[in-house]
Design brief:
The complex is a heterodimer of chains A (about 270) and B (about 325).
Chain A: H1 10-21, E1 27-30, H2 34-44, E2 51-53, E3 58-59, E4 81-82, H3 85-94, E5 99-102, E6 106-107, E7 113-114, E8 117-118, E9 127-128, H4 135-141, E10 144-149, H5 174-178, E11 186-191, E12 194-198, E13 205-210, H6 216-221, E14 228-235, H7 241-251
Parallel strand pairs in A: 1-2, 1-5, 5-10, 10-11, 13-14
Antiparallel strand pairs in A: 3-4, 6-7, 8-9, 11-12, 12-13
Helix pairs in contact in A: 1-2, 2-7
Chain B: H1 20-29, H2 41-48, E1 54-57, H3 67-75, E2 81-85, H4 90-98, E3 101-106, H5 119-126, E4 131-134, H6 137-149, E5 153-156, H7 163-166, E6 171-174, E7 181-186, E8 192-200, E9 206-207, H8 215-221, E10 224-232, H9 235-240, E11 254-257, H10 275-285, H11 288-300, H12 305-312, H13 314-324
Parallel strand pairs in B: 1-2, 1-8, 2-3, 3-4, 8-10, 10-11
Antiparallel strand pairs in B: 5-7, 6-7, 8-9
Helix pairs in contact in B: 2-3, 3-4, 4-5, 6-8
């Protein structure tokens, strides 16, 4: 694989690309891990009026410190509402929430996410993972579901071992047939190699932009299913110096998500 | 129930009956007496938690949960408990350490959010020793809400189409008004709810500051309710400002005064989580022999939570955790 600019790591590039997807004056429920860093970066840069919601009940906080838990004190700083999970989930069910931002252990070409177990038999898992948490709720109810993932063949798989959270399930029309709210579903997947959307007719994952220095072959080799490519994929904008500065000094100075400073450099 | 061709037929086990009439009879008998319910954690666990009971914890993962009660459950070697794994992290970690549960409704267990997975929690859940049924956080939370409302189920639009539904004990139903396909989640009445709060009076009136997660409905759904509290205050505090009453006294069975009761977790407005101690747990769990020694040192070998607190943290560390807390009272 081509080396990328040593100014930033793949994780930093992924988080900056993810932050760009969050629009100002929209509502978003944010999951644990890299999505948190992206939301906090967005709030400090391009989306100061992003309404950040946490499933534990914090609504519209101004984030001062990167949350370790999606229920912790850091999710509640300067919030407009210290509410309940019901208030947040019911806002999602009511149609008031634009985005959710999730992670997972596996994803397939329809954007189905697995965070429950690895293995062929639910009753005898090779690896027991946490389960849905709020992810199934958010992927079912929010208008646009986004996910961040490390891009490799263990994670981008032909078939997830367990559909914890619904993507487009088996393809066009499947969500609606299952009873999920119309007009919802996977929107973007931001990985360490590119930004993917979903091709409108087939509902299959499609590369919209390649990260700088990444080739189609890199993505194809790191994906366990046949990845589609947009007619003219773009190159993901590099993180700006401002983004990197804020990310490292204000969002995650302790390296909880970015890793320790000495390990950030790649290439 | 509609059974449309191609629909998922859930196969999960229902651990607690959603029989609302039986629950009404229970609540009919429950004492409304405004009496002093203060007692030690040891007494509360001995009186209200029995082998085989189905228990549920409040808070969310490592935030505002009742460490003292969970340690006591493990220390007294309760067994065959059922557990509602609703957004649980360190609370599940403690119960898994003691191998005290044999059935679990799962929305979130084993995981520790950004801190990774619990190695011992994984071993326990992968051993086959625990019967499991899957839910989502909202789905499981709405089960408490149905119980709180006294209705046998609530309709919801989550879990549909997923394997989470397949391994749940929900049922697909048709909306009688519009024909919309919905998930029915059955009312969940835990035998015992365990909730840590900021302040309570001697009768059980309780105040939760910050987000309440699903605790207000968990408190209503629970047949018996153990409250641990940072502070004991006068009832007049609640009478003067009823907005402070998160949980009224008639729902409460025990009030245990446990300062730093959510340690090593985070208690909003009070103290932050002890990430050093939580990291030590995860690290030591990797080796079963070392973990056994760790549990002997911190749980089995101590008399109570206060001793654990002194051993694991000490006054200086506790003061640091107070200063690390980011939410300040105005």
């Amino acid at each position: 694989m081509a080396t990328i600019d040593a100014r930033y790591s793949l994780v930093e590039l992924m988080i900056c690309a993810a932050a760009r997807q969050l629009e100002d004056n929209q509502t978003a429920v944010i999951g644990t891990g890299a999505p948190l860093a992206a939301a906090m970066l967005a709030q400090k840069t391009t989306a100061p009026n992003l309404v950040i919601l946490f499933e534990a009940g914090a609504m519209a906080p101004i984030l001062e410190r990167l949350p370790i838990s999606v229920s912790g004190s850091e999710t509640q700083t300067r919030a407009l509402v210290h509410g309940s999970m019901f208030e947040v989930m019911e806002a999602c069910q009511r149609g008031l929430v634009d985005y959710t931002f999730l992670g997972g252990a596996q994803i397939d070409m329809y954007g189905n996410l697995n965070s429950t177990m690895i293995g062929g038999d639910y009753r005898h898992p090779k690896v027991r993972l946490p389960g849905s948490g709020g992810a199934n709720d958010l992927a079912s109810l929010c208008w646009k579901t986004m996910a961040t993932m490390q891009h490799d063949v263990r994670r981008f798989v032909p078939r997830v071992d367990f559909i914890t959270s619904p993507g487009y399930l088996t393809g066009p029309g499947a969500r609606e047939a299952a009873g999920l709210p119309p007009g919802t579903g996977p929107y973007k997947v931001i990985s360490t190699l590119g930004v993917m959307g979903f091709e409108p007719l087939s509902k299959r994952m499609q590369v919209e932009s390649l990260h700088p220095g990444v080739t189609r072959q890199d993505i194809a080799a790191a994906t366990g299913f046949e990845m589609l490519f947009a007619a003219h994929p773009e190159v993901t904008p590099e993180p700006t110096d401002e983004q990197l500065e804020i990310l490292r000094t204000q969002v995650d100075p302790q390296g909880m998500i970015l890793g320790k400073p000495e390990r950030r450099k790649v290439g | 129930m509609i059974e449309l061709e191609g629909d998922i037929q859930p196969v999960g086990e229902l651990f607690q009956s959603p029989d609302v009439n039986a629950a009404r009879e229970f609540f009919r008998q429950k004492s409304r007496a405004m009496v002093d319910k203060r007692m030690s954690v040891r007494e509360a666990v001995a009186r209200f938690i029995h082998d085989g009971d189905y228990i549920a914890t409040g808070g969310f993962g490592s935030v505002r949960f009742s460490t003292a009660v969970l340690h006591e459950i493990v220390r007294t070697r309760k067994h065959n408990l059922g557990f509602s794994g609703h957004s649980t992290t360190h609370d599940f970690q403690i119960l898994a350490a003691g191998r005290v549960i044999d059935r679990c409704d799962i929305a979130y267990v084993v995981g520790l959010e950004i801190r990774g997975l619990s190695p011992n929690g994984r071993r326990f859940m992968e051993s086959g020793a625990v019967r499991t049924t899957e839910w989502s956080n909202a789905g499981l939370g709405w089960r408490y809400k149905a119980a709180a409302m006294g209705v046998p189920f609530l309709p919801a639009r989550v879990m549909l189409g997923s394997d989470t539904l397949r391994y749940s004990a929900g049922r697909l139903i048709e909306d009688p008004f519009t024909g919309q396909k919905l998930l029915a989640v059955p009312a969940l009445y835990p035998d015992v709810g365990i909730i840590h709060v900021h302040q309570a009076d001697i009768y059980g009136n309780s105040q939760i500051d910050g987000t309440s997660i699903v605790d207000l409905d968990l408190a209503k759904a629970s047949k018996r309710l153990i409250i641990t509290t940072e502070r004991i205050v006068e009832t007049e505090e609640f009478r003067r400002d009823p907005r402070k009453t998160s949980i009224p006294y008639w729902q409460v069975d025990a009030v245990c005064h446990v300062p730093f009761g959510s340690y090593p977790g985070n208690m909003p407005f009070e103290y932050f989580s002890d990430e050093r101690h939580l990291s030590a747990w995860v690290e030591v769990e990797q080796d079963e022999a070392r973990f056994a020694a760790f549990l002997d040192r911190f749980i089995y070998g101590v008399d109570d939570f206060e001793t654990y607190l002194a051993l694991a943290a000490g006054e200086q560390r506790l003061a640091e955790l107070r200063s690390l807390e980011i939410l300040k009272r105005s």
